[in-house]
Write a structure and sequence with these properties.
The protein has about 260 residues and is α/β, with parallel strands linked by helices. It contains 10 helices and 9 strands. The strands form 2 sheets. The protein has a 7-stranded mixed beta sheet. Strands 1-8 form a two-stranded antiparallel ribbon. Helix 3 links the parallel strand 3 and strand 4. The model has no long low-confidence stretch (mean pLDDT about 95).
Length: about 260
């Protein structure tokens, strides 16, 4: 009997209806598939039924990796490694579809890593990912709402995001104390070009460091009160960080890069 490890944020998805639903979200047949955190292989089984071209799974837990090898033999490739240390773009020659019941304790770290390292030529076709509902709400939040923040801005830069459904604790073993949400991420064809994504991270970090305060202090810190930028982007310094829409933050990152170049 395999026990979930709290230290790795493990909660295994066991609801067959949800597993079926996830496997039907996008085309799997003859596609390259990457699964993050397969655990006991419940979703893996449904993916294999759809006849992927190639399936690679990344599982950090040694015991689970051995179990997967015994269970699926030569039907897939198992990488017993830490997802945060892997260059996913190097695993396949062609674009890949990613499924992941991400460990909740590092889910935002994984997603941020992928987005910050994204080149204009995407290495994936779609990401189908499970998050703690509270995190998912922040990812898809619109401006002028309480959940809107750094995560919303960074995730929506190069990706279109669609919420599929919420999933209750009873769908997992052991049962988590929170609800989960399933999100799909699709590459955008058009997005504002920012030379260094770390500049977007820096701007959002400084702006949202005191999210209830007005914009004057963080704007002056970054742009030294540059009135041309204020007029160009129609920014009112009495507003709060959550009152600025996505596109304005991306334009701010570009203006910041222009000033530094």
């Amino acid at each position: 009997m395999i026990k979930a490890k709290k230290s790795l944020g493990q909660n295994f998805l066991i609801d067959k209806n949800i597993l079926e639903k996830i496997s039907n979200i996008t085309i799997i047949k003859n596609k390259n598939i990457l699964e993050i955190g397969p655990g006991t292989g419940n979703l893996t089984s449904y993916i294999l039924k759809k006849n992927p071209k190639k399936l690679i799974v990344i599982e950090k837990d040694n015991e689970l990796s051995i179990n997967l090898e015994n269970k699926f033999k030569d039907k897939l490739t198992i990488l017993n490694d830490d997802i945060l240390k892997i260059e996913e773009a190097n695993l396949f020659k062609d674009n890949v579809t990613v499924f992941g019941n991400l460990p909740y304790n590092i889910s935002t770290e994984i997603l941020s890593k992928w987005i910050v390292n994204l080149k204009d030529n995407f290495w994936f076709e779609v990401l189908v990912l499970m998050f703690q509902k509270e995190v998912a709400d922040r990812i898809i939040a619109e401006f002028n709402t309480p959940n809107y923040g750094r995560l919303s801005i960074i995730c929506n830069w190069k990706l279109n995001i669609k919420k599929i459904c919420d999933i209750g604790p009873e769908a997992f073993f052991p049962k988590p104390k929170i609800d989960s949400s399933l999100l799909c991420f699709y590459p955008k064809k058009n997005f504002i070009k920012i030379k260094d994504p770390n500049n977007l991270e820096k701007i959002t970090r400084i702006f949202f460091n005191q999210r209830r305060k007005m914009l004057k202090k963080p704007f002056n810190q970054l742009f030294n009160g540059n009135k041309k930028i204020l007029d160009k982007l129609k920014i009112d310094l009495t507003m709060r960080p959550q009152n600025i829409d996505l596109e304005t933050y991306y334009q701010l990152a570009c203006e910041y890069e222009n000033l530094r170049s």
